[in-house]
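Predict the holo structure. Ligand: histidyl-adenosine monophosphate.
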Amino acid sequence: MLSVKPYRGSRDFYPPEMRFRKWMFSRLRSSVEQFGFEEMDAPILEPIDLYLAKTSEEIVSTQIYTFKDRGDRQMVIRPEMTPSVARMVAGKFRDLKKPVRWYSIPNLWRYERPSKGRLREHWQLNCDIFGAPDPFWADLEILHLAVTLLKNFGADHTMFRVKVNDRRIINYLFENVLQIQADWWAPVARIMDKKEKIPRDEYMTMMIAAGLGDAQIAAVDLYLENPARFFSDHKVSAPVFAEMENLLVAATESGLRDFVEYDPSVVRGFDYYTGFVFEIFDLTPGNNRSLFGGGRYDHLLENFGIQSANAVGFGMGDVTLQDFLESHKLVQNPDKLVHVYLAVFPDPSLLPHALNIATDLRKAGLNVEINLGQKKMGKQFQEADEKNIPLVIILGEEEIKNNSVQMKNMKNGTQNQVLLGNLQESIQSEWEKIYAAKN
Ligand code: HAM
């Protein structure tokens, strides 16, 4: 017998889960569109070269789903969207009105060990801005968007925190303080990125394996544990420290005071980030995990021959977002929205009339579920009730003769006769009563 389970780390979306997903995504879409972003999409398959150029070594070497197509090309099921977005922006770079503000909600595949918040297939809201006249403004706009997304679900500053950093500060640490060669930077940055997520001895083993001595590990500790001192020690020699401070001041002054803070441990795993980076953390005690993140990646378009195109954005996963909404009780599980159930007396000659009524109501924009068999009336009411459809239209021979139907409000039990000519209006006013009683 075949298994009915989906592939490990992926999910089936039965209608209730799909309803939830649609609700969550429609909230995200409307928030992002408030910021003037436009939706786009790309193929789920890309050639492997797209990811070899500049991405995360961990993803390419251990997490991508890859195969040869029938033409012997090495293909990848997309593990992230950023390389595809960059490819598409580069493809029309000259024609696109700048700044480009694009978003997408692709499904992505990574061969991970499934655990809480991490699956093999997830959906990820991506929001990116390319070619802003002043990248600093774009960084700030991205911060506002990230915060607004969660606030629009009802979240407040007690529930999450945006932790920001700048890759150039980390590069400064590597180059001027640790004085390590450039090809060590990315591996060391990845270990620092893991520091908060793994036990100290595992972290130490990784740092030593990456070639760092005791003095260098101590310097990293000082940077991570006392950033204020690190800033004041180095501000004069590197302007990026002042830039970071400006960003924090501008964030504070534009209403993000309670949401944003500096955190030296924020690194972000991808090699393409070049400046401002951030992660949003859930503040639930015991579930202090990263919800989503992103940053500035000004050189990715160079792979496609486009020079000097600044870019900033983030990716927000559906799995971590759902956990966050559930743990903070922010889910408003939407009911299946069927406005009326059309109950028909068990007589085949009534079917064409019933279908005509359903067609007219659907044309008027109503969602109508019609009984699909010759069931007794009581059973039909029961079906409407079980499906939580609050309004039932009843059609029998008598009603056809009178050019009317019966309308039953399942919530308060009232029933009355309605002429077909007044049906839409009557449904409308009955629904208003149902909404009023609900709220
Ligand atoms: P990322 O940090 O790899 O960044 O993923 C962004 C978010 O996607 C994560 O914070 C998490 O919410 C979700 N996510 C990632 N992997 C998984 C997984 N295996 N299971 C469930 N959720 C997951 C990127 O992918 C960047 N390309 C984002 C970006 C866009 N940067 C700039 N623009």
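The two ends are 48 Å apart (CA to CA). The mean pLDDT is 93.
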